[in-house]
Design a protein that fits this description.
With 43 residues, the protein is mainly α. 35% of the residues lie in helices and 0% in strands. The protein has helices at 24-31, 36-42. 0% of the residues are buried.
Length: 43
Amino acid sequence: MNVPPPTTPLLQHSNPETYVPKTVAKELHNRGRLPVEECLHLI
């Protein structure tokens, strides 16, 4: 079975001093309500 490569690199931020984790709280702040489909992926 062929597995496609990831769509995003596993290590996007190689500098720990500038790394900011992606959190649900930040996504809600930046985007407002999330679509139901995305919420179901969080469960």
